[in-house]
Amino acid sequence: MNVIVDFSVVPIGVGVSVSKYVVACQRVLDDAGLKTNLHAYGANVEGSWDEVFGAIKKCHEVVHEMGAPRVSTVIKAGTRTDRDQSLDDKVRSVESKLERSG
Amino acid sequence: MNVIVDFSVVPIGVGVSVSKYVVACQRVLDDAGLKTNLHAYGANVEGSWDEVFGAIKKCHEVVHEMGAPRVSTVIKAGTRTDRDQSLDDKVRSVESKLERSG
Amino acid sequence: MNVIVDFSVVPIGVGVSVSKYVVACQRVLDDAGLKTNLHAYGANVEGSWDEVFGAIKKCHEVVHEMGAPRVSTVIKAGTRTDRDQSLDDKVRSVESKLERSG
Amino acid sequence: MNVIVDFSVVPIGVGVSVSKYVVACQRVLDDAGLKTNLHAYGANVEGSWDEVFGAIKKCHEVVHEMGAPRVSTVIKAGTRTDRDQSLDDKVRSVESKLERSG
């Protein structure tokens, strides 16, 4: 089962600057060979369910190892059985309709 | 690694009434022996990372088997290394402060 | 337009214990006269769109005034035009099906 | 008070294809003059609190007018008082650290 995920991480108890923890998670996703798209509020991730959620677990572990006593993530997970869909498909589907009606 | 999760599921493409799918997911969580607390917008779930996320994957599979072509979930996941915390602790921590200051 | 919301708040840059900020937000919701249901990962809130989102804005302001340099909230908002629905209805709808099938 | 938001919308009860509703919301955000960045799981939006949340309310109204009996959105809202930050800043902060450590 493939999944398209949106994923954001907030370390708690490490001060106001959280970007180095976000970077560490992004590296975990990259190292797992997952297709990702970074945006201002997290990252889109595409892959098999087990690979994607394995990487998210690893991200929690890495951020704790970096010293964060609490880690809070928000994950939106979408699966579909009617057809395959990629990250790029999802954006194109909206963008093409915006252009036609613009 | 233990995790406290908030989990909600929206099946897409099956009409306006979604409660039977929510019920099926609740049953998956119960069958997995996980501690849960149902609320109006999802459920809190407490357990080991692998058990909780295994149950969430199973919920996607069950809702697809019931006929939903798309399943969208939102998961908030919190882990902490500074101390153990249960679902009940989290609520009590807020409620006790509300009473003292009320 | 009425709305049923699930709302959680994370202050960033104030250390590992966040419950006093959650309490302050809960008080804002109560003072606004909104029906709420606290759970381990936030609160369900029911009311008119403008009242509910006015209270959420006020919560951000109050948490900043308490000293948090960053405030991050997650809001799930549901509206429906087919019929009225309350917080209690949503939980009862699931619980009654769980009992029948249990 | 400025806010950076991540916003996604799911119409319920209108079948499996939801992109035309997403397009309508994107148009509402654009018409409000808000800076947005579309991604595969929603859109980042930047602006004053009242303008951003006014547009999100309008999005719910428009999607109902298009025929969706239920509309469910997920909103992540971040405010900060320590400094100004834009959508572009947030992404650059992570990307620059990725490059340095890559």
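Chain D has three helices and four strands.
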